[in-house]
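Sequence in, structure out. Go.
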Amino acid sequence: MSFTYVKSLSSDFSNNFDQYIFREEIQNSLITGVLLEVILSGDQIDVTFNAELSVDDLNKFNNLVENHDPSEIDKLTSSYKTIPVSTKIKSSKSNNWQLVSTYDYHGTSNVSEIKYIDIISKANPSSGTLSYDFRVINLQTGQVIANKTGFTNDTFQANDLGAITNLPESRSMLEIHCKIASGSGNINIQNINIY
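Output:
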């Protein structure tokens, strides 16, 4: 079960906070819990993990909160900037490729190359084991950017889509697809992160 830590923009971060950089700091830390989302709404910051953090992880998390300083990071050139991508669907039962999300990538001639993509997802089999796949394609050319098959995890985890290839130089629309490869049930999708 997911667990949310609630922080204050003014009290905990002295009104100096960047949610994307903070996500990056958590994901590049030694915290073992899986980060699901960081949501800023007014003065409230909700930081949600897949489960309650251990004492050691909570100490690391609190240390990140205390030392967060967006001004120390060049947001435009950071190689590991995390871009959360919204999903068009949260669940799929299809054995054919189904659109999960689109991403407007500005091309390697304009922005940094995509280093990797992960999708927080799980299988929800009706019985036995369900295997599912993800792919990312360039909508204009049809070229495959990433393709990873055989996910079977039945609890939410960050699934890395593997090697990134065929990145376009110019601005292009990328599509993220999923499908059930074997078994019956559905795929649950929570977040997509592009680095």
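Check: Residues 106 and 171 are 4 Å apart (CA to CA). The chain has two domains: 3-72, 83-194.
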